[in-house]
TrEMBL record:
CDD domains: STKc_IRAK. It is found in: Membrane. This is non-specific serine/threonine protein kinase. It comes from Pisum sativum. It is a single-pass membrane protein. The keyword RNA-binding does not apply. ATP binds at K161. Its main location: membrane. GO terms for molecular function: ATP binding; protein serine/threonine kinase activity. It is an enzyme of class 2 (transferase).
Amino acid sequence: MATSGASLPLLTNRTSIAGLKFYVLVIIFLAIAVSILLITVLCIRRNRSSKKSQMQVKVKHSSGTIPLVSKEIVEVIKIGNVIDDDPKMQKQVECEIEESSSVSVESPSPSPENIGWGRWYTLKELENATGRFSDGNVIGEGGYGIVYRGILQDGSVVAVKNLLNNKGQAEKEFKVEVEAIGKVRHKNLVGLVGYCAEGAQRMLVYEYVDNGNLEQWLHGDVGPISPLTWDIRMKIAVGTAKGLAYLHEGLEPKVVHRDVKSSNILLDKKWNARVSDFGLAKLLGSGKSYVTTRVMGTFGYVSPEYASTGMLNESSDVYSFGILLMELITGRSPIDYSRPPAEMNLVDWFKGMVASRRGDELLDPLIEIQPSPRSLKRALLVCLRCIDLDANKRPKMGQIVHMLEADDFPFRSDLRTREKDYVPSQADESKKVLYPTRHAEPVYKASWR
Ligand SMILES: Nc1ncnc2c1ncn2[C@@H]1O[C@H](COP(=O)(O)OP(=O)(O)OP(=O)(O)O)[C@@H](O)[C@H]1O
């Protein structure tokens, strides 16, 4: 009794904070603490349930005929030249070398009439098209935001990429993307049909490609026999090469994609390849390489010189294309930690197998009908040339198109190389084919368009 009696005057004492009594302050403090706690708990629960429903939606949406791939996108922060080797951290490389000064953060403010190449959509139009961005219309989610399927008022089907707008970085990428790809049209590229920039919202509206992406078909559950036959795989490789050749050689200024990978190769029902996601593309002045202010790409596909120096030109895309072609041949991911250590890195395993003349064992076991040895050798040689450590020795994308299509490649060009550059050993034909000492550059006709 004596104790509580003594504490009462202390509680009723006035404090120096706005002359409030001590007990009032205690009550205010407790109320704030309880509110913060409640808000935190509510936020966590909401977050969890929205993530869960998004996952369910993704499964629902693509469970038809397109296989699912479980994706964990993790950012890898690169310090200096060392790429983090932690397996858990290797899905995505995103290295900030220094803040870009060339790209303005201002929102574009076009009018529907003046953008020329497409349309500026209002938020309302895109809300209507996507059922208010309903979960049922989610196609998937990438590093830049959620992609929705939408039907415009004229009945055309589109993919609406709702960019994460709360990051300055996404705004910059948005502007780069719009300006770089707005006017680009090619049968092997996913066309941008418009965009929306309203308030804080930033959205890109693309043509809809209806048969999933290459990553899903290569690494999803397709059963014991892949629907991607050898011929289909080569068709996808050639189509991708044509799309990239157009970006590199058919535009002025040229465009380097910067994130060539299997999830960015969309497929239609006839297995035509459509290269998507120009979010990382950057316009380049012709004839010069370009030191970019940011290095971006996906781990496993990034060329060594691009990863370490930020030196960017189209040969970085050629390297990534080489990895993609390896992926098509082998059905393996560029980095796969579920494999034995010697096979985790696709490039190392691939080179080792070729060096020990076991090239035919590289073939994806899910391919039922084997390609001809000539066709396989041609593809293997193209891979090796694309991943040449000397970026200057890598072929151009237009040349790659011809190499992949030419019936007599590598045999004719290899013959020329041998005649001109070195005395052939008596080694077997495959060794000669796969290891020319210098790359012959046959004269290619520019027919890749
Ligand atoms: N035009 C399109 N038509 C149909 N599906 C698309 C289209 N664009 C993207 N998608 C699908 O939406 C999903 C997300 O694509 P997005 O390009 O945003 O990410 P990603 O390529 O998976 O990853 P990242 O952002 O790292 O490139 C993928 O499943 C992709 O196949």
